[in-house]
Amino acid sequence: MTAIDFTAEVEKRKEDLLADLFSLLEINSERDDSKVDAQHPFGPGPVKALEKFLEIADRDGYPTKNVDNYAGHFEFGDGEEVLGIFAHMDVVPAGSGWDTDPYTPTIKDGRLYARGASDDKGPTTACYYGLKIIKELGLPTSKKVRFIVGTDEESGWADMDYYFEHVGLAKPDFGFSPDAEFPIINGEKGNITEYLHFSGENIQVPPVFTALRVAYVKTWYLSQQQQLFQVTWLTCKGN
Q: Which residues are catalytic?
């Protein structure tokens, strides 16, 4: 089989890739609870971005499914095992301090500036075009790919909870998310701070924190390497 120059294949599609990416970045897909209704579970913006992504997939000949505007997917390839690709169209609020309009994608000095360019519309589009190249070159696949796009990653993953409860398909056998640093992150440590409040009276407790304890809980990640997950327990103040 002739070696494939994937860099050249990407370059051939660069203008199309940027056009599709810009069409997603121009959509303000921040969550807006003031406009939530049955058709817009996290507000109109995330739904509009989801619909645009599925429109792109439809254009390229993929069978798509929108699960009640919470999330959607398309599938490609064949195989008994399913590889899941998990991406999202919602973004964190743009905030202030921008030199450009966060929803007018702008290229300056070889860099693309827009809300969602790196989290997660840019990586999603890059991953989409990687799969598109495989499809257009007719390369064989040993797994079925389900490309799943959600709308609530930044606020609690209610989109994925709903999607897997209602999509009517088994969960993928394994997968990854194009939403981190390249090439791969297979485990992360996290920190949780919890405030515990109790009713009743405090007895023999000084007017400071009743206790501050740090517990380390062992957890396992996809790499099956044991990590330490730090959990900080902070109790309530005394009276």
A: 90, 153
